[in-house]
């Protein structure tokens, strides 16, 4: 089961600042005795917690005090050293692992009931016969409906050990009685490659949403598929990708660079340098690559873009990236919680650090998106601030800059028609998804004759459907929302969401990309080869 929620870049601009971290691969050189030796300041903190626990006049949850203390300490280090409480560890680990054990459905909690959006292709629910529109009412005799039930409770009921079975009672529209299904739980992928398809006869497209443990395998499968379809050029879309594992980024870069080419190097506090080089395993060393980035492309995304740019491989397209050049390592704290602590900086092959300054505090750091917006940088490349002292030269003589993100080779301004506040609000609040689900509920048979590509190429959203959406908003939205100026854009989002709920498999991205000015720029550049 996967909640299918699509977030636009503006909203991701905030989430990305919190969610970005890289799995470091460095080890401390100090012995454990030296690393954890006692000192008066550590003893002072421990004594204070004990005094509060045993002597303070009121009962206090000292665990919460410790959490606040840890966060306070990390806030004084850098923006990317983060604390992961015990309650969040399973979710965070699951997301980065790239799969979980469950029954394999996308769902909404719709009118206090689990409504299946779509059964995951080849997943256990699809194999058992569960379909989009089904309502799951009970699992192993426990009710899964009601006003007070929360998504976490639902997920707990449907998840379980691998190969165990769950008995479901399901309501299906048109059936006189409840249906019984037995579903065997299995590994369900949390995909990190959103879409793989051909933009033109020679130009393939791959979109990656993060760098998890399974990302390279997903990417390689998609790359091989595109090569088989005749792709001699690849558009690698890393927009709004907050990063992830360093090693995964290295593997992906390796597909494009010749043997023994430097990918990046890291340096820790002791000055120890560790270099990473391309191997002989690359399958696209001769092909051309375009890398799409924006202001929310961070961390591992910047490693990929920086390595290819510094080695004069392909073209970087879009807007200046986030600017995160710090490497974290996850360390357990003994109670099920952990800290991701910055242990080194990484540098692109020419030697530039792309970490932007954070000496004015975390709030100023996280608000950088709005600074860029107000300065005009997102619409005018001349407004990008660069320092001559951070100028570097690639092997072929191209000038690149450090000090705060990857500056693209080809600038594409932000598209206000597709990234305006109205569309962001409608998508973020789930209005488009809920409306589309209701449309399908009226008559799913109206869409049964469509195959995925036929729907993408030929289906038209009628004006009447847009009027229905406005009526839906007038009832559901907290305030009056109108989109007269964005009529065509709303049509496109409705169509993309319909395709996603019907077919999945990258159909949402493929439809939105039809009006994407950055995709248009890539296609034009490809034609000019």
From TrEMBL:
This is Peptidase S41. One of its GO terms (molecular function) is serine-type peptidase activity. Residues 89-159 form the PDZ domain. It comes from Pseudalgibacter alginicilyticus. GO terms for cellular component: outer membrane-bounded periplasmic space. Keywords: Hydrolase, Membrane, Protease, Serine protease, Transmembrane, Transmembrane helix. The lineage of its organism: Bacteria, Pseudomonadati, Bacteroidota, Flavobacteriia, Flavobacteriales. It comes from the Bacteria. Belongs to the peptidase S41A family. GO terms for biological process: proteolysis; signal transduction. The chain crosses the membrane at residues 7-28. The keyword Metal-binding does not apply. InterPro entries: ClpP/crotonase-like_dom_sf, PDZ, PDZ_sf, Peptidase_S41A, Tail-specific_protease.
């Amino acid at each position: 089961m996967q909640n299918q929620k699509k977030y636009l870049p503006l909203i991701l601009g905030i989430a990305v600042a919190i969610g970005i971290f890289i799995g470091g691969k460095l080890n401390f050189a100090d012995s454990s005795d030296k690393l954890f030796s006692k000192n008066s300041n550590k003893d002072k903190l421990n004594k204070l917690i004990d005094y509060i626990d045993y002597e303070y006049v009121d009962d206090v949850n000292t665990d919460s005090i410790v959490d606040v203390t840890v966060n306070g300490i990390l806030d004084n280090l850098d923006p990317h050293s983060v604390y992961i409480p015990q309650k969040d560890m399973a979710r965070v680990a699951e997301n980065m692992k790239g799969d979980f054990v469950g029954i394999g459905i996308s769902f909404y909690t719709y009118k206090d009931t689990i409504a299946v959006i779509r059964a995951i292709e080849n997943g256990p629910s699809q194999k058992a016969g569960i379909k989009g529109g089904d309502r799951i009412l009970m699992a192993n005799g426990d009710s899964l409906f009601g006003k007070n039930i929360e998504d976490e409770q639902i997920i707990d009921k449907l998840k379980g050990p691998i190969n165990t079975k769950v008995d479901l009672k399901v309501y299906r529209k048109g059936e006189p009685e409840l249906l019984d299904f037995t579903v065997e739980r299995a590994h369900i992928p949390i995909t990190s490659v959103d879409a793989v398809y051909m933009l033109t006869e020679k130009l393939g497209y791959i979109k990656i949403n993060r760098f998890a443990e399974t990302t390279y395998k997903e990417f390689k499968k998609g790359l091989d598929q595109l090569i088989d379809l005749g792709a001699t050029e690849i558009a690698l879309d890393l927009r709004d990708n907050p990063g992830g594992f360093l090693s995964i980024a290295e593997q992906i870069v390796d597909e494009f660079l010749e043997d023994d080419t430097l990918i990046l190097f890291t340096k820790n506090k002791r000055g120890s340098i560790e270099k990473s080089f391309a191997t002989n395993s690359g399958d696209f060393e001769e092909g051309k690559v375009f890398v799409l980035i924006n202001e929310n492309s961070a961390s591992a995304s910047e490693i990929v873009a920086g390595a290819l740019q510094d080695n004069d491989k392909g073209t970087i397209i879009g807007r200046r990236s986030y600017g995160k050049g710090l490497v974290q390592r996850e360390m357990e704290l003994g109670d099920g919680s952990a800290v991701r602590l910055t242990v080194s900086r990484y540098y692109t092959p020419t030697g530039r650090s792309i970490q932007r300054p954070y000496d004015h505090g975390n709030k100023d750091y996280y608000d950088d998106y709005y600074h860029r917006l107000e300065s005009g940088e997102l619409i005018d490349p001349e407004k990008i601030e660069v320092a001559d002292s951070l100028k570097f030269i690639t092997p072929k003589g191209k000038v690149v800059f450090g000090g705060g993100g990857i500056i693209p080779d080809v600038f594409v301004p932000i598209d206000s028609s597709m990234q305006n506040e109205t569309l962001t609000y409608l998508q973020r609040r789930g209005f488009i998804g809920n409306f589309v689900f209701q449309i399908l509920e009226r008559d799913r048979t109206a869409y049964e004759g469509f195959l995925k590509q036929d729907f993408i190429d030929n289906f038209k959203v009628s004006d009447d459907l847009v009027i229905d959406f406005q009526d839906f908003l007038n009832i559901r939205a907290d305030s009056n929302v109108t989109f007269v100026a964005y009529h065509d854009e709303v049509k496109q989002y409705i169509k993309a969401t319909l395709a996603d709920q019907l077919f999945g498999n990258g159909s949402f991205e493929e439809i939105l990309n039809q009006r994407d000015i950055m995709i248009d720029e890539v296609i034009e550049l490809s034609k000019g080869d």
